[in-house]
């Protein structure tokens, strides 16, 4: 294989590398002498901005491969963005919190299980060789236990990363718990200050 064939097959990656190098070389330098383009905050912003386009491109790739076409991508992205913004600003425990975090945990669990089974199954197929005529099957350890462990670990890592940020990112769950705690404290204080330790629902107030 000649060098020209290698370059033609990897031309997409060379373009990405060239864009990255242009960003690094053309980036300004902070007062501390650090490259702003390579800073953690800038790279996180870039990934956040392209995440929506990447998810849509992934879905559209599957649609095009199956021979279909979908013209509602733009409108669907717009309505999802508006609904997400509305859920994030509504006070109290919103569906964004109640459904979003468990859904991400379940997706991480299923993704860990499926990817692990796929990798182990391909390893077993490569060991069997192309001359294998029987169906490749995994035993209980590699087919169930190992993927389950990997899925639980991935789900735990996702929850460990997300749960401390729920109050600050959503801005509603933490305030809801603080409000509930304050109401409970005020109610207990008011009950203890009543004559005879009675509560408003007792016979003393009837």
Automatic annotation (TrEMBL):
The keyword Mitochondrion does not apply. It is a multi-pass membrane protein. Keywords: Cell membrane, Membrane, Transmembrane, Transmembrane helix. It holds the Pfam family BPD_transp_2. It is found in: Cell membrane. Its main location: membrane. The chain crosses the membrane at residues 12-30, 50-69, 76-98, 104-123, 144-163. This is ABC transporter permease. It comes from Mesorhizobium escarrei.
């Amino acid at each position: 294989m000649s060098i020209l064939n290698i370059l033609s097959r990897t031309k997409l990656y060379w373009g990405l590398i060239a864009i990255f190098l242009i960003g690094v070389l053309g980036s300004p330098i902070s007062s501390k002498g650090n490259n702003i383009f390579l800073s953690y905050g800038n790279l996180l912003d870039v990934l956040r901005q392209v995440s929506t386009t990447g998810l849509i491109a992934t879905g559209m790739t599957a649609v095009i491969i199956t021979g279909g076409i979908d013209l509602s991508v733009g409108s669907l992205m717009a309505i999802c963005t508006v609904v997400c913004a509305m859920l994030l600003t509504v006070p109290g425990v919103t569906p964004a919190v109640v459904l979003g975090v468990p859904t991400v945990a379940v997706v991480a669990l299923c993704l860990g299980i499926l990817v692990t089974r796929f990798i182990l199954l391909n390893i077993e197929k490569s060991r069997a060789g192309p001359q294998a005529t029987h169906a490749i099957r995994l035993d209980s350890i590699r087919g169930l236990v190992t993927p389950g462990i990997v899925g639980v670990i991935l789900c735990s890592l996702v929850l460990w990363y997300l749960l401390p940020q729920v109050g600050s990112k959503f801005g509603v769950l933490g305030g809801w718990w603080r409000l509930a705690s304050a109401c409970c404290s005020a109610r207990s204080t008011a009950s203890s200050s009543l004559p005879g330790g009675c509560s408003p629902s007792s016979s003393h107030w009837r």
